[in-house]
Amino acid sequence: MTQMKKYAAMAEGIMDRIGGAGNVQQFTNCMTRLRISVKDHSRIDEEALKQVDGVLGVVDDETYQIILGPGVVNKVAEQFGELLQQAGQSGPGKDEALAAANSGAGNYSVGKSDDVKAALKKKNNTPFKNFLRKIGSIFIPLIPALVGAGIINGIAGLMNNLITSGNEASWLLTLQPILGVIGSAFFGFLTIFAGINAAKEFGGTPSLGGAVAAIIVAPAVAKITYTYPFFGEISLNAGQGGIIGAILAAGLVTVVERFIRKRVPASIDIIVTPTLSLLLVGLLTVFFLMPVTGIISQGIGTVTTWLLAHGGPLSGFVLASLFLPLVMFGLHQALIPIHAELINQVGYTALLPILAMAGAGQVGSAIAIYIKLKHNAKLRNLIKGALPVGFLGIGEPLIYGVSLPLGRPFITACLGGGFGGALLGLFAMSERFVGSVAIGPSGLVLIPLMQGPMDFGMTVLVYLAGLLISYTAGFLLTYFFGFTKQMLVEHNK
To answer: Measured between alpha carbons, how far is residue 453 from residues 178, 280, 325, 346, 435 in Å?
Structure first.
């Protein structure tokens, strides 16, 4: 079976077990998951879906998430889109669907239904969970750009270190600033992208969300000064409020846009509604959101840094140990605004390398499982295929395909990652933070992005030591405590 036939078979198997093309309302994909909104949840045969070759697991949330792994999910999403087109579902043209799938974060609708959303919200409808889902949905489409730009930015940083150390080769002096622009441009306008996606997520016009978010990063805001009673003079800075301000501004412009549109005659709606929405929310952004969210953003950075510096090994252990459960439920995307604020304030996020230890614990656990289950050919083959991307920081294939179905090894993997986090927390106590200048990559891929108060070599060395400790701890905890005798008999066939 050729690779494309394999992906087509996977897509067809998934389609059949979720109730067919007619049961699909909308689908999208991120780096590892195919996310499907279905019309009738009861038509999903979950047990049969898990048995489809290549399906690593499922997450039953507001959107039904099927774990396929990096690379594979893009190919399957492409074939899934083709099946929908062949079934005659309404939606974008085939070329648009394929382009979206190939981007790594496709999003295409094939009908409308509110039944499934109502049913699922009854099941998981808490304000906190809904808030985290919204934040995650805003940033999921940005992941490919975050990863690509982050790695390029890291390479540019390494080249800059070579120049600083005395290497003045002409090709290096020419190429470094070019790569610097390519890698940093996206992060410079990340606020605008967040505003666009936030407005889309909240049901507003994306361009208006981007327009109000652009106010926050516009260089001209640095010229704005005004005075409030009791608070005195307020001076704004470009970027003040950051990602948080952009999301709130986009949400606000969506509310205002809806309010005005209901009250404006259709003949002048195209002129009046966007103009008034942008003007009103623009003024609120300048006079209220930027000052307030600037304080909030600063507070988030201060609290996170304080927690790492004063919590030391305990904070590092707890953060790294609890990160895999967040990944399991897809809620880890909600941490992106915190990373972004830390990078904006101090130039790096010291939180990301600690959380990256969780994936290393998963890798060590998988190696122990591979050794313990010598006669489980299917699981061992899955581990061999998933380990390379596990070393590169993508742990979901190992979570859903290996440790989580076994139960106890998932817990030992979490705890194993905590030990590496504890080491980085120990260094943070003396303000020797191990940081990353960009968001997205993890595992060994994070190395080019390392930065902190220590020099680059020492920062990388501490990070590698943390990974090694997590690999080792995950392996030992799983090898000695991850299986009962009954589990070994049951799974070692």
So the answer is: 26, 43, 30, 10, 9
